[in-house]
Amino acid sequence: MMFIKSLLSRTVPYARCFSWTAPSVLQTGDILRQTRVFSNEDVIEYSKVSHDSNPLHFDAESARNAGFEDRVVHGMLVAALFPRIIASHFPGAVYVSQSLHFKSPVYIGEEVLGEVQAIGIRENKKRYIAKFATKCFKKGDLLIIDGEAMAILPTLAVEKIHQMD
């Protein structure tokens, strides 16, 4: 918990960061974050659901032969942090779109910080359409995924994070 609090207290130019205890109202520039470590079991379970059995995810030698240091976590599994962050703060949100640019691999056991920043919000029929800049980092500030997402939010009230393990 202390690690998460330290991440939230990082200074980010032109952006507010939420504490875990104070519900707030989402505004343009706000950043929501969560961390995750992807395990071997996560990779196996994702492979079962997605039917992605690429040897890069299961065989260290195949991964090294392809130029990686070790087995690679599925990029789409890492990118699943974005809807997780949004849904945990806005129950009932509808994820509408996502663009992704994969910059660097994630290896099993590495901690990843997922971040969504509100870059546009508009009201539409008592709901809100929010556009987010989406980023994942590892090893502090190494950008691993970059993109944008759109979601329909039932409210702009930011709820305390619910653990979704």
UniProtKB/TrEMBL annotation:
<dbReference type="GO" id="GO:0005739">
    <property type="term" value="C:mitochondrion"/>
</dbReference>
<dbReference type="InterPro" id="IPR050965">
    <property type="entry name" value="UPF0336/Enoyl-CoA_hydratase"/>
</dbReference>
<dbReference type="InterPro" id="IPR002539">
    <property type="entry name" value="MaoC-like_dom"/>
</dbReference>
<dbReference type="InterPro" id="IPR029069">
    <property type="entry name" value="HotDog_dom_sf"/>
</dbReference>
<protein>
    <recommendedName>
        <fullName>MaoC-like domain-containing protein</fullName>
    </recommendedName>
</protein>
<dbReference type="GO" id="GO:0019171">
    <property type="term" value="F:(3R)-hydroxyacyl-[acyl-carrier-protein] dehydratase activity"/>
</dbReference>
<dbReference type="GO" id="GO:0006633">
    <property type="term" value="P:fatty acid biosynthetic process"/>
</dbReference>
<dbReference type="Pfam" id="PF01575">
    <property type="entry name" value="MaoC_dehydratas"/>
</dbReference>
<feature type="domain" description="MaoC-like">
    <location>
        <begin position="33"/>
        <end position="126"/>
    </location>
</feature>
